[in-house]
C-alpha cells in the first residue's frame, strides 16, 4: 500500500508516487510511468524546464542504461531538482523507482566536490615544503651544536633543553603557513568587491600562472539570447528565397511553420509559456498559440483522459491548412544527440513527426533526395556570417500504432527535409577588448563550443581570437570503415585546398602549407567533436601537436569539453575555463581555474563565480592571482631571511653561552622588518597599503612572473 515516509528513510528500489507540482526530489529516481517537467538548474546551471520521459518496459534482464538510447539521463529525476509538473499517462499515476540516495546521488556528488575539491599540485607549495625540510635539517644541526656547547660548559640539563628547542623555533618559522595566505586573503576581499566569489582560496595563487584560457561561446563570448533572423524553406527545386522576420510579413503556413510551432519543449505553466529561450523565440515567430486539452479530448492511440499540449494558429495568421496540432510525445533534445523530435496529431488529420537540430545531424536522418544538392553551400553562407542555423524535417506516421509504443529509431528515419531556421547571435561588447588584452599578454585563448564549426570560426575572427593575418586550418578526421582505415585531412579555410593524411606518417609540414615568414602562431587549427574523438582514438601521437595550435573546437559534447581541458593540462598548461555553467560544469571543475558566469546552484562546483555575466572577470582574476603570488614570494623571502639572520646571530652568541633578551629579540625583529621593507618595493607596498601592487597584464611582466615561478 501507499504510505507517507520521511525522505531519510528511502532506500534504492522503493516506488515513489509523484503528485502535484513544485516538488523537490529527495533522491535520484528512474521514471517508469507518466511524464515530468523538471527544473534542473541546480545541477546544470541552465534554469529551463527539461522534459522527462518514462523508461520503456522491456522483458530483457540487461541493465536499464543498456535498454535505452544514447542519453539515459532523460529518464532520471535527479536529487535536488524541482518537479514543475507531473503528468500521468491516462488515469494512472506518475511513478518512479528510487535509484540512489544521500551522497551517492548527483547532488551528493556536487556537494562532495565542494567539500573535498581536487587536490592541487602547485609548484609554490611543493617548494615551500622542500624549503621547510631544509630548515628542519638546518635546525637539527643547530640543535646538535647547542647541545654540545652547553653540555661541555656544564650548564644544567633544563637550560640545555630550553636553548636547544629555542634554536628549532628560530630556524623553522611557525608563522610561515599563515604568512603565505596573507596575499590570498587580501586578493579574495578585493575579488568579492568586484563581484567574483571563490570557494577554493588556494586557487587564487594558481590564477597568477594561467597561460591558457578556454571560453564557451554561447552566453559567454556571445549574448545568451538568440533572435530569429529568417527562414529558408526548400522544395523539390532546392532552397527558396529567405523569409526575413524583420520584414514584418507573416510566415508562410505549411509543414515548416507547423514544425516550428510544435517541435519544442515548451510548457504552459500558470497561463505562461516557459522553456528554452531559443524554443520560445522560434514559437513566437510563428504567431501560433498554446493551450492544453481537457480530459474530454480524445486522440486515437492515446490513453483516455490524457492531457496533451495543443498548438494552433491565431486569428492574425489568416487562412491555415490545419486547425491545430496536439503534441502526443517528445523525444527531448540532448547535447550528445544534437536533435529533438516530437510526435504530433493534426486536428482531424494525419499523425506527423517533426525533428529539429544541428543541420548536419538532421540531414543524415532525411531521405537523400529531399535534401537539396546546395545544402552545404547554403549552410556555409549563413554560418560564415556568424548566424546560428537549425534544420527542420518531418514525416507522416501511421495512426494505428499507439504514440507511446513508438521507438525513437522508427520515428527518426526517412524524414523529409523542410528547411533552415536562421538565428542571430551577437558578440557581447566586452568580449573583444578582453580577448585582445589576454592575447597581448601572451595568454592563449581557446573556444570550446557545442555550436556549428563555421559559426565558431566566424565568431573567433570577429572577436579577435584569430587576427586578420592568421590562417585557420580545418582538421577533419574520419572513422575507420570496412573499406578504409581511419584518416585525417586538413585544409585552409580560405582556399579549401585539401591535403590527406593517413596512418603511414605522423608529421605535419605546416610551413609549406602556411607560408608566413616562419612567424610562430601564424596559424590556428579548428576541429569538431567528431574529429577530436577520432584523433584521440587513432592518432594519439598527433593530438599534442594539434592542441599546441588548436584554437577552435566546435560541436563538442560536455564530456569532450572535460577531456580537452585534461589534454591541455597534460601539455603542462595552466588552464582556465570560463563558461555560463549550462553544459560545461565538468570542464569548469576539471580546469585549474574554473570561472562560472551563472548564478545557478550548479556554478558552486567551479572554484570561481562571477556576478557580472561577461568575461571581464578573467583579467581581474589573473591580476589578483599575480598580486597574491608576488605577495607569497615576498613573504617567503622575508620569513626565510628573518629566520636565517636570527639563527646565525643566536648561534654566534651561544658560543659564549650567551643569548638575546626579550627586548633584544624585539629590536632585532623591527630592524630586520625595516631593512627588508626598504629594499623590497612589493613588500613595502604590502606593509603600507595592506595589499601588493597589482601588476598589469603586460607581456614583459608576464614573462618575468612566469620565469620567477619556474626558477
Automatic annotation (TrEMBL):
Membrane topology note: Multi-pass membrane protein
Entry's Gene Ontology molecular function annotations: ATP binding; ATP hydrolysis activity; ATPase-coupled monoatomic cation transmembrane transporter activity; metal ion binding; P-type transmembrane transporter activity; polyamine transmembrane transporter activity
One GO process term, biological-process aspect: intracellular calcium ion homeostasis
Segments crossing the lipid bilayer: 128-152, 164-187, 636-655
Keywords: ATP-binding, Magnesium, Membrane, Metal-binding, Nucleotide-binding, Translocase, Transmembrane, Transmembrane helix
PROSITE patterns named in the record: ATPASE_E1_E2 (PS00154)
The keyword Metal-binding is annotated on this UniProt entry: yes
Homology family: Belongs to the cation transport ATPase (P-type) (TC 3.A.3) family. Type V subfamily.
Name of the protein in its database record: P-type ATPase A domain-containing protein
Organism: Myodes glareolus (Bank vole)
